[in-house]
């Protein structure tokens, strides 16, 4: 109740102190007249100070299969994606090593779609409800962002869906490809003088590359944009996901991989490992502009219903009802100094049940508990330009309360409060042809409710698991803000972390989590982009890093100075692009270095190269505008590993990737 009173008072106060009209310009991206950007707007003035990749996809959407998030993100330096083909586990995304611990889903990184969080308050993200088909642009903020976004912000991925169109349209897409993969989709855009509406549906089915890897996915999305007078811009988004079946083929050991890379683990078939998900999301953003003030109100609600079967007996069937909602208020004042002040409240409630998996059939219940995560955050950021210098600093205070109540064991209730203060300090100097910059920041990650509740005896609370704390230093040089054909960006980062969370698989097959003492992540990121002429473009990105345990022992075993599992020591992406208005072509080469599979570094996965080819064209047939496309993935049919099961019991580390695969289709513009 106190929080609600404070919230109401703040809104009333801020809306009354703002009285004159002002237009706020977001200088990161040129915006359409009704765009609401509560995330990118907050960081618009920090683009020179922080590593930001601004990606646009208007043309790219005509020539990509739109199945995997890696199609859109793998050119970003510092960002690495695994697990593109196991849709029961979701993509594993790491940014500068943050998030590498995830055995499923995404950890340590905040994800927003149209300003609405996809990340639950405890730091867990899934992206199976993200509509890849209507992504218009993505901004990726690398490095520690806890001074803006609180826990689990070792990177921020801000996705904006379709909204930049000038007339009504209907698009229909049909695709098919390898492994009996099919996709149908339809998009309707309606625009009048002061508002826009976008309706979208898609249905995807695939048998998968490996046995027992079939998946189905239905998505529906609605987006509404309007101006309310000349001071307010409103955005409403709604999303529905129905994924009734996604099978998990599991990890293989070396011998199984050699004998048949397409097989599923026998135990995964025996226990019928799979998941089904339904999810419902609603979000509202209201941005108001005045003389020297900008005010953004954002509220959202998300409910996710999950049923899963894991390949072990005790607790191997999970039933999870997750709901989370939140409110955020951002106040911007621009005078001699530029200020951002903000308040956020986020609440998550999980009802988690675990049952005995009796060879795929649900048996007796072994866990029944309510889990709650509350977050209150307050932040301030200020920047000042003096000549060629830009100075800035920010700080955020968070209070997180975690409560777990096991109603199966005499209503045992455990509550824990985690407070954190995270500052950041930044400096930029603009030379004539390039900028140099530096920043220092801190961050933290609380364990997710799933990680805290994962125990071998199903007691429901791992009291030994602590929050991760990190400190980052970064320095770099860039000319991306200059008007030049050849653009480059070079950055060095160094991250010191305490209590890194590490997964390991118990003898029963359940994934449990523990803390590593100290780790160090350091590396270099390099980007290069150039236009050869009006049609040809070359993009290149490189990440070379060292990710190691500085001080970590487990009983009598000392892992100090070993590499952290699940992160390659280097990866490259080179793309040659050709666009002439009627023909679109991309040839890309990806090179990934060695990756360790376990803490002891006794097993590693060799690096690999992969070449992809995408082509599309525009034709007119029977009065219709048609865009056919054709995509080849892994053109040279390279044998490589798509996902590593970190510290897997029995050395079942390997989830192999497909060899050469195809996808083709067409889009009709009505």
List keywords for this structure.
670 residues, Maltoporin, Chain A, 7 helices, globular
Q: How many DSSP H or I helices?
A: 7
What number is the mean pLDDT? 90
| Percent of residues in beta strands | over 45%
Query: What distance separates the N and C termini?
Result: 52 Å
Morphology: globular
Named CATH architecture: Beta Barrel
Could you characterize what this model shows?
With 670 residues, this protein is mainly beta. The chain has a single domain, classed as Maltoporin, Chain A (Beta Barrel). Helix content is 7%, strand content 57%. The chain is built from 7 helices and 38 strands. The strands form 7 sheets. It has a 22-stranded antiparallel β-barrel. Strands 1-8-9-5-6 form a 5-stranded mixed sheet, with no helix packed on it. A hairpin with a 2-residue loop joins strand 18 and strand 19 (361-386). The radius of gyration is 24 Å and the shape is globular. It starts with a helix and ends with a strand. The model is unreliable at 1-36 (pLDDT under 50).
SSE order and pairing:
Elements: H1 2-17, H2 38-43, E1 52-56, H3 70-73, E2 79-82, E3 92-95, E4 106-107, E5 110-113, E6 116-117, E7 124-125, E8 135-142, H4 146-149, E9 155-161, E10 169-177, E11 181-191, E12 195-206, E13 215-228, E14 232-247, H5 254-259, H6 266-270, E15 274-289, E16 293-309, E17 317-334, E18 338-358, E19 361-386, E20 389-406, E21 412-430, E22 435-445, H7 449-453, E23 468-478, E24 486-505, E25 511-531, E26 536-551, E27 553-554, E28 557-558, E29 570-579, E30 583-592, E31 595-596, E32 604-605, E33 608-617, E34 619-621, E35 624-633, E36 641-644, E37 654-656, E38 661-669
Parallel strand pairs: 5-9
Antiparallel strand pairs: 1-8, 2-3, 4-7, 5-6, 8-9, 10-11, 10-38, 11-12, 12-13, 13-14, 14-15, 15-16, 16-17, 17-18, 18-19, 19-20, 20-21, 21-22, 22-23, 23-24, 24-25, 25-26, 26-29, 27-28, 29-30, 30-33, 31-32, 33-35, 34-35, 35-38, 36-37
């Amino acid at each position: 109740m106190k929080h609600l009173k404070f919230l109401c008072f703040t809104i009333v106060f801020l809306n009354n102190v703002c009285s004159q009209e002002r237009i706020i310009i977001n200088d990161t991206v040129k915006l359409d007249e009704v765009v609401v950007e509560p995330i990118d707007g907050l960081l618009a003035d920090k683009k020179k100070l922080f590593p930001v990749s601004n990606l646009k996809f208007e043309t790219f959407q005509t020539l990509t299969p739109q199945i995997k998030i890696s199609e859109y993100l793998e050119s970003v330096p510092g960002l690495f994606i695994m697990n593109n083909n196991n849709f029961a586990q979701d993509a594993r995304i790491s940014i500068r090593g943050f998030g590498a611990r995830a055995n499923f889903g995404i950890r340590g990184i905040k994800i927003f779609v149209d300003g609405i969080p996809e990340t639950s308050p405890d730091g867990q993200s899934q992206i199976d409800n993200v509509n890849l088909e209507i992504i218009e642009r993505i901004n990726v903020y690398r490095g520690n962002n806890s001074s803006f976004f609180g826990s689990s912000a070792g990177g921020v991925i801000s996705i904006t869906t379709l909204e930049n169109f000038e007339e009504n349209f209907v698009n229909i897409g049909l695709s098919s490809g390898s492994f009996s993969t099919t996709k149908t989709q339809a998009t309707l855009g309606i625009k009048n003088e002061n508002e826009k509406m976008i309706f979208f549906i898609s249905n995807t089915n695939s048998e998968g590359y490996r046995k027992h890897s079939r998946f189905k996915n239905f998505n529906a999305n609605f987006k509404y944009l309007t101006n309310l007078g000349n001071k307010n811009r409103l955005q409403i988004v709604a999303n529905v996901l129905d994924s009734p079946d996604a099978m998990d083929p599991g990890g293989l050991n070396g011998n199984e991989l050699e004998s048949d890379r397409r097989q599923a683990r026998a135990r995964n078939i025996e226990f019928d490992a799979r998941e089904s998900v339904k999810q419902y999301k609603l979000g509202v953003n209201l941005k108001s502009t005045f003389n020297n003030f900008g005010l953004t109100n954002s509220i959202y609600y998300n409910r996710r219903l999950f049923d899963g079967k894991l390949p072990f007996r005790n607790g191997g069937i999970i039933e999870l009802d997750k709901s989370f909602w939140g409110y955020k208020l951002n106040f911007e004042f621009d005078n001699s100094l530029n200020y951002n002040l903000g308040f956020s409240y986020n609440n998550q409630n999980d009802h988690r049940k675990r049952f005995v998996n009796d060879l795929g059939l649900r048996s007796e219940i072994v866990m029944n508990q309510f889990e709650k995560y509350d977050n209150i955050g307050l932040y301030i950021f200020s920047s000042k330009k003096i000549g060629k210098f830009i100075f800035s600093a920010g700080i955020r205070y968070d209070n997180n309360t975690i409560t777990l109540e096991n109603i199966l064991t005499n209503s045992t209730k455990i509550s824990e409060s985690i407070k954190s203060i995270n500052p950041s300090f930044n400096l930029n100097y603009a030379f004539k042809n390039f900028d140099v910059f530096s920043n220092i920041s801190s961050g933290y990650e609380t364990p997710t409710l799933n990680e805290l509740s994962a125990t071998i005896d199903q007691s429901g609370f791992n009291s030994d698991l602590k929050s991760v704390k990190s400190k980052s230093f970064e320095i770099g040089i860039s000319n991306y803000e200059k008007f030049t054909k050849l653009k480059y960006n070079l950055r060095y980062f160094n991250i010191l972390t305490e209590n890194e969370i590490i997964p390991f698989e118990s003898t029963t097959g359940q994934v449990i989590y523990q803390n590593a003492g100290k780790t160090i992540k350091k590396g270099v990121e390099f980007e290069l982009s150039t236009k050869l002429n009006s049609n040809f473009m070359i993009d290149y990105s490189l990440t070379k890093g060292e990710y190691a345990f500085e001080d970590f022992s487990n009983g009598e075993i000392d892992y100090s100075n070993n590499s952290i599992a699940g992160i390659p020591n280097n990866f490259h992406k080179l793309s040659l692009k050709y666009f002439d208005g009627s023909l679109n072509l991309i040839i890309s080469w990806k090179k990934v270095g060695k990756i360790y599979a376990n803490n002891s570094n006794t097993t590693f996965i060799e690096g690999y190269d992969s070449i992809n080819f995408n082509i599309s064209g525009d034709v007119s047939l029977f009065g219709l505008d048609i865009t056919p496309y054709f995509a080849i993935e892994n053109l040279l049919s390279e044998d490589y590993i798509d996902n590593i099961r970190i510290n897997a019991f029995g050395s079942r580390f390997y989830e192999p990737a497909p060899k050469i695969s195809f996808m083709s289709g067409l889009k009709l513009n009505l």
